[in-house]
Amino acid sequence: MASYSEKQANDKGEKHHELVCVTGAGGFIGSWVVKALLLHGYRVRGTARDPADHKNAHLLTLEGAQERLALCRADLLDRDNLCSVFSGCHGVFHVASPISETDPELMVVAVEGTRNVINAAADAGVRRVVFTSSYGAVHMDPNRSPDTVVDETCWSDYDFCKETGNMYCCSKIMAEITAKEEAANRGLDLAVVVPSMTIGPALQQKLNLGIAFINRYLTGAKKTCPNAVAGYTDVRDVARAHVVVYERPDARGRYLCMGAVLHRAHFLQLLRDLFPQYPITDKYVHNQFPPAYVRACIACSLPPKVICNDERLMVYVHVWQA
Q1: Which of 35, 172, 180, 305 is flagged as catalytic?
Q2: How many C-beta atoms lie closer than 10 Å to residue 172's C-beta?
Q3: Dihedral in degrees, nearest 10, Cα atoms 310, 315, 321, 322
Q4: Closest CA to 178 of 198, 164, 158, 149
Q5: pLDDT tier at 16 (50, 70, 90 boundaries)?
Q6: Dihedral of CA 122/126/127/131: which sign?
Q7: I need a surface site. Which of 2, 56, 68, 250 has the fewest CB within 10 A?
C-alpha cells in the first residue's frame, strides 16, 4: 500500500486554496511535492527553465492541475525574475537543485540560486520557505565514530567531500548553510527537509538520480558495491514531509526524512529475488569511512514506514523498465 495515499490526502487535507510556489516542479521530488500540495487544496505555481518543454507535461495531468496549477519560467540566478514569480505566494518550496558529481560550476548555481530564492521570497512577502536538502549534507564524515548516532545536528565534512570529488554533497552542504544564513538575516521562517536516497515511482519521464542508482546495478554497470549501510526513503513520504513541515508553524530547522536503513547486500538481494535475470553484483569493497548508526526520523513525527519492501521495489523497477 502506498504510504502517501491520494484518498487520505483528499479525506484529511484541508482545502487551503492559498498560493505556494515550487521550484524545480518537473523533477522527481518536485513533481511529487506539487502533487501533494494539489491534493491538499493549494494553488500551486511551479517553476521550470522551460514550462512548455514536454518533460513537464506530466504535471498538467495531475489531479487539480487544470484548476490550481500554473507553470512559469524561472531562472535561479535572476533575483528579479524570482521576485516576480513569488509575488502573491504565501510559501515557497525550494526543491530545484543542479545535480553533478564532477562539475564545480553547478555548485555556484546551487548556492547562489538558493541565496536568490531566499532573498526574493523575503522581498515578495513570502512568510515561509521549505528547503530540500540531502542526506549527503549529513553523513559524509570519515572522522565520525562508528558509535555516533547520526541526527539533524550532524554535518558532512566539506573538505572530505571536496577531496573525494563529491561535488554534489559539497553543493548541498553550502546551499543549506546559505539558506539558513539568508533566512535568519531576512527574518524568514525556514524548515529544511533532509531526505536520504529517494526512491519510488517516477511521475516524470526523465531518468533521475535514484532511478539511475538502481539502473547501474540492474545492467551490471556496477561491478562492486560498498560494504556499508544506506538510508532509503520513498518519494511519496518525502513529498508528505514537505507539506507537513510547511503546515506546522512550530517546525524549524532540519528534519531527516528516512524510511529504512539497509545494508547494501540486503538491498541488492531484494533486487535479485525480484529480478533474477539481471546481472546484479555480489562483490563488495570496503567503504571509505567508518559506518555509523542512523537515527531514522520522519519529519514532525510522521509514522515510520519500511519503504524497501518487495511491493515498492517492484513498482520502482517496473517504472525503470517501462
Answers
A1: 172
A2: 28
A3: 170
A4: 158
A5: low
A6: negative
A7: 250
Q: What is the CATH number of the domain that holds 148?
A: 3.40.50.720
For residue 186, give its domain range. Answer: 4-321
Beta carbons within 8 Å of 262's beta carbon, 6+ residues apart:
229, 230, 232, 308
Of 16 and 293, the one with more pLDDT: 16
Per-residue b or e along 83-102, where b marks 16 or more CB atoms closer than 10 Å to that residue's CB: bebbeebbbbbbbbbbbeee
Give me 308's grid cell: 524497501
Tell me the per-residue pLDDT of 37-83, one tens digit each, with 9 for 90 and over: 999 999 999 999 888 888 899 999 999 999 999 999 999 999 999 99
Among residues 120, 122, 88, the alpha carbon closest in space to that of 19 is found at: 88
Residue 172 annotated among the catalytic residues of the structure: yes
The torsion angles phi and psi of 21, rounded to 5 degrees, stand at -120, 140
Structural domains in the chain (count): 1
Q: What is the pTM of this model?
A: 0.83
